[in-house]
């Protein structure tokens, strides 16, 4: 089967500093993929390239059999939604308005959102356990509440490809669990491909189908979680000693003291 | 849903604008009985239709233009402090006018506004080029470039004034303080056409412009051609600011104040705010001009001061009440 989204030899340098060196990976539909690696290893740059925020200097992104630069921008935006690391509307905005703005690629030039768009937005808020926040303003919310509103904004477009830059950062642990389960559920129900950057190996291993590990701009591991979470591999990739616990076919990492 | 609170807001502000216009036409240092004008009294007609009506309309248009420009710049730069003045557009216009005055060109009618307009566009171009690196326009660099150019313009203005003839200086100073004295129907027509065109352009960009609020990366991922939107938006805002400044001199604060006032009442996105800012800016400047005309019947006080005198207390009271 042809992959939904494909990165082919992507390279990128900011002012001469290499951020991405020949990264290739293919993503099938209905996959939850965790992207990890130290700060500055190129996770955000890769996500931006897949989201069409940055154009690769070398290489090509292929979506649905077609090069990304051949897709009309708004058409691709109907299919792929991206959540930056620190989204922030400059001026105070109501949560429901924030979420409904996720429908923008579907709007005509002079059009306003319809009732159907607002229904879609309310449903997305509900999915993210944030329905009660609909009428509140973002500047009155905690970091975690805002994150949930922004995730709802991503879902409001009903995307086939979901690209999230550290969506779990600043969430409390019960929402980390809820979110991970939600992403899993979206993937299983809608067949979307979700790629999300995270530093939490355990949560990633517990919910994702696949883990990518990046280091200094290169993709060095692309494997199932159980294969990534092995003591010798963790030591080699992340530089600390750990034991692993197996439970119900999944792995949990426990650092040695 | 999107429009349910929009139309009442537009209706309310439109009513307020019409009311302010009526008061502005009715009030003045000479009392003009409306009856007399209707009965065909030539003097009363002249005062009404050659002086007060064009002046009130011009005030509304100037206010609308500056407020719309301010809103556009704030949205484009994602910065609540952005306005035509901080970006150097007005400074460029003033600088052009000051140089023209120093060269004695102010004695040729109609030339100073033209030079001022050229100055505004030149300043825009300079600020944009300074902020642009590798096909990317950095909002912070844009603001900084505007700030630094403003300092430069102030210096050139001072030098020009020092070199100007005393007799030319009075008019130049009056222009610098902002004035609607001598408003003509041709000014009204010019600004009305420009503002209408700008509003159409901005409305067509509105769906993209409001997405910029979430950051340029986010907007790009939603299929917005960010650089194109920035270029068109910035150019549109600058052209209308240049025209407004050329016609009426420097009327400060409207571009900064009005969008914030409107946002304190209606916290919505660009599409919603665009017409409301136009109407609100109109109300503020019509009232400010009215006050500047009637406070001292013998001489006109600078209208630019009154936009601040009227706007700031209102703004502060709203700010204190909002969280």
Summary, kept brief:
The complex is a heterodimer of chains A (257) and B (323). With 257 residues, chain A is of the alpha/beta class. Chain A has nine helices and twelve strands.
How would you explain this protein's 3D organization?
- The complex is a heterodimer of chains A (257) and B (323).
- Chain A has 257 residues and is an alpha/beta fold.
- Chain A has one domain (5-223): 3-Layer(aba) Sandwich (Rossmann fold).
- Chain A has helices spanning 43-50, 73-79, 95-100, 115-127, 143-155, 173-190, 201-207, 225-228, 231-238, and strands at residues 5-14, 17-27, 31-36, 58-63, 66-67, 80-83, 161-164, 193-197, 210-215, 218-223, 242-247, 250-255.
- The longest helix of chain A has 18 residues, at 173-190.
- Chain B has 13 helices and two strands; from the N terminus they run αααααββαααααααα.
- Chain B has a two-stranded antiparallel sheet with strand order 1-2.
- The mean pLDDT of chain B is 86.
- Chain A binds chain B through residues 48, 51-53, 72-78, 80-82, 84, 87-94, 97, 100-101, 104-105, 107, 109-115, 118, 137, 140, 163, and chain B through 1-3, 74, 78-80, 203-204, 206-207, 210-211, 213-215, 217-218, 220-225, 263, 267-269, 271, 323.
| Total strand segments of chain B | 2
Within CATH, the superfamily of chain A carries the name P-loop containing nucleotide triphosphate hydrolases
**CATH class placement of chain A:** Alpha Beta
State the assembly state of the protein chains: heterodimer
């Amino acid at each position: 089967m042809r992959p939904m989204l494909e990165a082919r030899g992507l390279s990128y340098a900011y002012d001469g500093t290499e951020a991405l060196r020949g990264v290739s990976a293919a993503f099938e539909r209905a996959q939850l993929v965790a992207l990890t690696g130290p700060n500055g290893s190129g996770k955000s740059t890769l996500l931006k390239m897949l989201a069409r925020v940055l154009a690769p200097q070398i290489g090509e992104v292929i979506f649905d059999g077609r090069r990304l630069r051949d897709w009309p921008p708004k058409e691709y935006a109907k299919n792929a939604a991206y959540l930056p690391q620190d989204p922030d509307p400059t001026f105070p905005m109501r949560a429901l308005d924030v979420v409904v703005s996720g429908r923008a690629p579907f709007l005509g030039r002079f059009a306003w959102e319809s009732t159907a768009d607002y229904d879609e937005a309310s449903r997305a808020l509900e999915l993210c356990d944030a329905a009660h926040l609909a009428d509140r303003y973002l500047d009155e919310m905690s970091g975690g509440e805002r994150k949930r509103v922004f995730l709802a904004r991503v879902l409001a477009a009903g995307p086939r490809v979901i690209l999230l830059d550290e969506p779990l950062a600043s969430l409390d642990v019960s929402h980390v669990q809820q979110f991970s389960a939600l992403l899993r559920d979206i993937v299983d129900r809608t067949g979307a491909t979700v790629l999300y950057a995270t530093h939490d190996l355990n949560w990633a291993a517990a919910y994702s189908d696949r883990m990518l590990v990046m280091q200094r701009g290169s993709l060095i591991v692309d494997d199932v979680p159980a294969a990534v979470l092995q003591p010798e591999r963790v030591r080699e990739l992340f530089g600390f000693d750990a034991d692993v616990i197996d439970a119900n076919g999944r792995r949990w990492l426990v650092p040695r003291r | 849903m999107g429009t349910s609170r929009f139309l009442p807001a537009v209706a309310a502000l439109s009513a307020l604008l019409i009311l302010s216009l009526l008061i502005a036409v009715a009030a003045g240092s000479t009392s003009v009985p409306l009856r007399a004008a209707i009965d065909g009294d030539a003097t009363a007609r002249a005062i009404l239709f050659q002086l007060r009506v064009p002046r009130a309309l011009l005030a509304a248009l100037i206010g609308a233009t500056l407020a719309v420009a301010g809103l556009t710049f704030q949205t484009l730069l994602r910065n609540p402090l952005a306005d035509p003045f901080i970006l150097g557009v007005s400074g460029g216009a003033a600088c052009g006018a000051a140089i023209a005055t120093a060269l004695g060109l102010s004695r040729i009618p109609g030339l100073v506004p033209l030079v001022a307009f050229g100055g505004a566009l030149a300043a825009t171009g300079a600020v944009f080029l300074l902020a642009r690196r590798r096909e990317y326009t950095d909002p912070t660099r844009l603001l900084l470039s505007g700030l630094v150019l403003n300092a430069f313009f102030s210096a050139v203005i001072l030098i020009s004034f020092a070199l100007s003839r005393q007799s030319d200086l009075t008019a130049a100073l009056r222009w610098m303080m902002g004035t609607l004295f001598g408003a003509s129907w041709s000014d009204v027509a010019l600004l009305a056409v420009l503002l209408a065109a700008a509003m159409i352009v901005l409305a067509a960009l509105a769906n993209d412009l409001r997405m910029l609020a979430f950051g340029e990366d986010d907007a790009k991922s939603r299929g917005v051609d960010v650089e194109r939107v920035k270029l068109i938006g910035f150019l549109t805002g600058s052209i209308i600011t240049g025209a407004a400044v050329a016609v009426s001199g420097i009327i400060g604060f409207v571009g900064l104040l009005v969008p914030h006032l409107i946002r304190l009442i209606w916290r919505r996105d660009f599409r919603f705010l665009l017409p409301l800012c136009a109407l609100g800016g109109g109300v503020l400047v019509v009232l400010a001009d009215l006050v500047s005309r009637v406070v001292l019947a013998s001489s006109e006080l600078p209208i630019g001061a009154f936009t601040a005198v009227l706007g700031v207390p209102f703004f502060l009271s709203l700010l204190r009440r909002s969280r």
